[in-house]
Specification:
Layout (H helix, E strand, L loop, with lengths): L14 H8 L11 H5 L10 H9 L11 H4 L5 H5 L6 H14 L9 H15 L4 H12 L9 H6 L13 H14 L3
Length: 187
């Protein structure tokens, strides 16, 4: 996708906020696009990681908060690992997501918000994810109860999914993390 730069009235973009929140200096990016070439979701979005960075460098405003990459990003950190300048692009995506939520700028598409809620709730309850509850809650939320059920026996046989939660996790620590995150949400 081409980036068109026009001579219009300069606006205060969100670059400073993103850099302050993420702790990343985006001015060092020289657009080698290694982040985009390694990104597993770049082909599924209109604006890949390198374009998001370039738009920020060109003083993009709140319109960048509507980018679908913010919610499609897996936070796998492949982009960060591939960057020759050591830019932590995953932290930048986290900062952009936080800004989007704070400003109510973007609505997450599809079942992403449901998946995130279900995943985090199982982690909060059990100290780690509990597959069966997570899958059940997600299926109920999407109303697609019988999708992919043919895969369940094979996953169970290969021990890729557990019927019961593991209680080995340090639940106290996880609850403390969730409590601290809830407190920090307002700041």
């Amino acid at each position: 996708m081409a980036i068109i730069v026009t001579q219009e009235k300069a606006t205060d973009g969100i670059l400073r906020e993103v850099q302050a929140t993420s702790g990343v200096d985006l001015s060092v990016c020289y657009q080698c696009k290694k982040c985009t070439s390694g990104c597993p979701v770049a082909a599924m979005v209109k604006a890949p990681p390198s374009e998001i960075i370039r738009r920020l460098q060109l003083n993009a405003g709140d319109e960048i908060l509507d980018s679908e990459l913010l919610w499609t990003c897996l936070s796998c950190e492949t982009c960060s690992a591939r960057c020759p300048m050591g830019i932590d692009l995953a932290a930048v995506m986290d900062a952009l997501r936080r800004l989007a939520l704070d400003r109510k700028a973007s609505k997450q598409q599809g079942n992403v918000p449901l998946f995130n809620r279900v995943f985090l709730e199982t982690v909060r309850l059990f100290g780690r994810t509990y597959d069966m509850l997570m899958i059940a809650a997600y299926k109920v939320g999407t109303l697609k109860l019988l999708n992919d059920t043919e895969k369940f026996p094979a996953m169970l046989k290969k021990r890729k999914i557990a019927l019961f939660p593991t209680l080995e996790a340090d639940r106290k620590t996880v609850r403390r993390i969730f409590k601290k995150a809830k407190q920090n949400r307002g700041t």
